[in-house]
Amino acid sequence: MAFEVRIFPNSKGKSLYATSHIPMGTLILEEDPIVYCQFSWNALCKYKACDNCLRPLETAEENVRRLMGNPLFELPYPDCCQTDKNNSTSCDLCGNEYCSENCKISAFNQYHKVLCLQSRERNNSHPIELLEEAWKNMHYPPETSSIFLIVRLLANIVQASNTDEAIQKVLSFCHKSVNEEAQLAHKFLGDKFIHQISLLREMVANILPNPQISQFLTPEGFQSLLALIGTNAQGVGSSPFSAWRQNVEKLNLSSKDREKINNIVDTIYDDMYAHTGDFLNSEGVALYLKQSCINHSCDPNAEIKFLHNNSRLFLVALKDIQPDEEILISYLGECEINRSRHSRRKLLMENYIFACECSKCLEEIDQLDVTSEEDMSTEEDN
Ligand SMILES: [Zn+2]
Ligand SMILES: [Zn+2]
Ligand SMILES: [Zn+2]
């Protein structure tokens, strides 16, 4: 391994450092999440993906037919579709779908055993159904997080053979102060719903009334969990059509065939936007042990990718990284990262509660505290 996690006693906490030279383009690490869950509204839209790892469970053709609202559409180059439905399976008790026997067993052994909502229990008043409804009423699409990540995390502890070890794993994420946690919990739920924090806590406790997790179901413990999810949860998405398109791009086609397929792809996108709108992927949120140790820079030397069209995360070097150099990613989106120093730092403070002191922010320290033009309007809204 070309990196190590270093722990600092000050507020910086954990950091990832290179231990040897890492050339640009190198895959630094890959890892599966401790826990993943699909967004509630996303699941309702019938995006078919593995309940454990997000791998698509429909073919590229089925995917575009559904999103275009055209059940007869025929997608060319079917061999470019990556979806392998031969291995897909489902939970015998509740019908949750998985990409493989492996995912089904690992979900059951880690958290699904205590969360399996058997079909005979579905009556619109089961604690899981009640939380699902309450959460959907608080978070309309586009969804950015999910209370069910907390539920699965707690179920992991309940089912763990070594409870203390499982609790320590969760606590290793928490290194915010009480005040920062309160701000993050507020951000997680938003102004309108912050007073419902105790309702959510009771609903989660009704799903998992297990003594092993009582420390996380006190008002302070639950607020820590909300803060944990608020700062560490990573958005993930998958799309069988995107995977198909990438494979088509690699085909050796005549310029005439290339033009033809490009036109077909354009039409598919137009039709999908017209029928479904912007949200064309299966989407969810996940929690990663190593990735959560990586700090932010507005001029990062590494980036996160999802190369397998599922929740497995890859960290790739954007530049040459020297031994003893810290490995840094950007917590900001593609557009946000190009905003002014003032705007970037405001976003980071609001969403992650830290004042960015990265090399770019230090370099631009003389820049006036101006707000980028593109976010003037959003600031005025606030
Ligand atoms: Zn899977
Ligand atoms: Zn089940
Ligand atoms: Zn910065």
From TrEMBL:
A Gene Ontology BP annotation from the UniProt entry: methylation
Pfam families cross-referenced by the UniProt entry: SET
InterPro entries noted in UniProt: SET_dom, SET_dom_sf
GO MF assignments: N-methyltransferase activity; protein methyltransferase activity; S-adenosylmethionine-dependent methyltransferase activity
Keyword Ribonucleoprotein: no
SET domain: residues covered: 1-332
Keywords assigned: Methyltransferase, S-adenosyl-L-methionine, Transferase
This protein's name: SET domain-containing protein
